Amino acid sequence: MFITRRERFNAAHRLFREDWSDEKNLEVFGKCSNPNWHGHNYIMFVTVKGKVSKETGFVINLKDLSGIINTRIIDKIDHKNLNLEVDFMKGRIVSTENIAIAIWDELEENIRQIGAELHCIKIVETENNFVEYYGN
Amino acid sequence: MFITRRERFNAAHRLFREDWSDEKNLEVFGKCSNPNWHGHNYIMFVTVKGKVSKETGFVINLKDLSGIINTRIIDKIDHKNLNLEVDFMKGRIVSTENIAIAIWDELEENIRQIGAELHCIKIVETENNFVEYYGN
Amino acid sequence: MFITRRERFNAAHRLFREDWSDEKNLEVFGKCSNPNWHGHNYIMFVTVKGKVSKETGFVINLKDLSGIINTRIIDKIDHKNLNLEVDFMKGRIVSTENIAIAIWDELEENIRQIGAELHCIKIVETENNFVEYYGN
Amino acid sequence: MFITRRERFNAAHRLFREDWSDEKNLEVFGKCSNPNWHGHNYIMFVTVKGKVSKETGFVINLKDLSGIINTRIIDKIDHKNLNLEVDFMKGRIVSTENIAIAIWDELEENIRQIGAELHCIKIVETENNFVEYYGN
Amino acid sequence: MFITRRERFNAAHRLFREDWSDEKNLEVFGKCSNPNWHGHNYIMFVTVKGKVSKETGFVINLKDLSGIINTRIIDKIDHKNLNLEVDFMKGRIVSTENIAIAIWDELEENIRQIGAELHCIKIVETENNFVEYYGN
Amino acid sequence: MFITRRERFNAAHRLFREDWSDEKNLEVFGKCSNPNWHGHNYIMFVTVKGKVSKETGFVINLKDLSGIINTRIIDKIDHKNLNLEVDFMKGRIVSTENIAIAIWDELEENIRQIGAELHCIKIVETENNFVEYYGN
User: Quick check: F8 and E126 CB within 8 A?
Assistant: First the structure.
């Protein structure tokens, strides 16, 4: 059984490498490399798997799952600059792929502690593109 | 090849255990344990898998699939109280997880009889949470 | 300038008149008159109008508007039975139209006190129907 | 007859006044005043009104309307910082209200030149809030 | 009080004038003039206005409204070719504007007969464009 | 890591077999066999899988993926008749299942050439039905 919680965050970011020129960044990352930042309404889907408890009918109490996601992730990235202000994004190119990996790394152990297993982090950047990460 | 049919039902429910006090139910299930019920616009996605017929280009005729879902499920739960009025929910805590399992159990054999295999029952309770069940 | 805040509530209800038989209620209200209740994920859009403040660029601070809507409405109706538990619905048939009127009556004066004018209450009951009330 | 074209832009912004301290900005604008910016997937609906042409069945050719919106607005604000890089936002607090007014001012004359009348600029900032501006 | 019913229809159409060459049609109507047709999932919103009945809490019984829309409109245009098969589109260029006007003309009198007043026909052709017609 | 690009196309089609009578086609395919065509706003989701590049943070540059999808698919089917005008649909019944298979066959090799692996083609025909194809 899989259960999914949706959460949202609005953040600024820039796709670029410091060791590349603005021209090279523009060539590879297009307008996403704009030096003055741009931003998105990101939508995150956190899917966990587990057995359904005979006692509660739940895989996991969504209140607990939502609490973990908000404490560990949303409070740190909502209305923030993903390149400058988020500890778990430090040293990473702020692609949607890397956001998903970083969030997986932040949540995996905490979700295990409440008795479930993290299955998928899905990050929707725009209505036309999203990524799904299942760990490795 | 996987093909999915979406159907909807609006129903009342309450999350609670009869053998627990109202206080215990409130503690575990939160406002979902309100004794006077609350309700949802549930969205259900039924996914079946199968081979594509050379004759029709179909895995399954969606008219047949929709017919089964409506006869076996929607007619019994739409505009109903899931705790009080639905035979296949009797004796189960009415969590989204248990709704998905019960619907799987109702549909699996019927879908096999029209030549396809039930793959997934997805139940969306609110825009922020849903479950997916793939059988066991 | 018009600004709109969306809020959501999940509630049970029944369409019926106490002075009618179950048969008459069924005839007029259809399956919405089910005596054991059913429910919806209601979506509410509260639109206010006003001038844009030179000081803040706002018609109204959405934090204030959201605060009023939550205190006056959401806290009273979310995860509740609209027929049995909501003071401002007492004595009214719980149609979408009457929900909109009752919410208008609850909010109008409070919104005036924070310097704006209530313009429209829109209540979406299902993806196929909604009402809009502009006062009278 | 009213016809509406939807366009989207992803941009960074910050709500603040230069003549206020960070504390005052935080108090009034909340986390939207974050000095390192945040951002949104803005959705814009441009509604024009006019008579339906007997010759074409159109109020306006949407290709022309979309062309004007893209040249005058989207090219200037998509993947940009609304505070720093957009000529028509200079000197304005970057609230959703002011974005709508500024876009109205940019488009009104151009739309008149292709034979229609601008009726409404609707800007959706998040799924929970939007503004509508009808000129003054 | 305004109440809106959503209905959907999937249809083929072509934008063109018989008295123009294919080149002229292509120039004015673009790829929408493709001689072999193309199609859409049209979404229609029918809004009526009226007083709320003290007896039922309804402006109008949505079952009646939906019945009229299906009999008069959906049965005639769903899974049809709007240029070739729909009586009320005969002699009209099949633009979204003209579809809205024709549907208004079909529904206005019938809705008056069930005690309400037609207020708006909204036709959504794609996620990026729609028209709204309020009669004349 | 999986990354998905959404693209859309509006097209006419008809479900039928030339070697069957209109009656037989109507019996099997229902109103989808209308001889004068009907149409849809199809939504396509192309999912590719691959490793995240240390250099760019990307599985694949979405600009490249979108370019391939548009050149190989969208340019050939948008605003077209899927039965009459699309080379890769020739000789196939134009079911949603067969559209997904044909698009898979068109894209698989091209996506491999830009360093990723095609994982899934999802085609949404209406809000109530979609197919997913993972190759064979």
Answer: yes
Chains that touch E (3 or more CB pairs under 8 A): C, D, F
Cα distance between residue D16 and residue F110, in whole Å: 48
- With 0-12 / 13-18 / 19 or more C-beta atoms within 10 angstroms meaning exposed / middle / buried, residue F118 is buried
Contact check, Cβ <8 Å, F59/A131: yes
Cα–Cα nearest to D73, from D88, D56, D59, D85: D88
3-state secondary structure chain B: CEEEEEEEEEEEECCCCCCCCHHHHHHHHHHHHCCCCEEEEEEEEEEEECCCCCCCCCCCCHHHHHHHHHHHHHHHHCCEECCCCCHHHCCCCCCHHHHHHHHHHHHHHHHHHCCCEEEEEEEEEECCEEEEECCC
Give the pLDDT band (50/70/90) at residue B44.
Answer: very high
Q: Compare CB distances from B41 to C12, C80, C126 and report the shortest one's residue.
A: C126
- Residue C81 confidence (pLDDT) above 90: yes
Does C136 have pLDDT greater than 90?
no
**Partners of residue A127 in chain F, C-beta under 8 Å:** 6
Question: Does the ipTM surpass 0.90?
Answer: yes
Question: Taking the model in full, what pTM does it have?
Answer: 0.97
Overall average pLDDT of the D6-16 stretch: 98
Which of the residues B43, B58, B59, B124 would you substitute to probe the F interface, choosing the one with the greatest number of F C-beta atoms within 10 Å? B58
Is residue E125 annotated as part of the catalytic site, yes or no?
A: yes
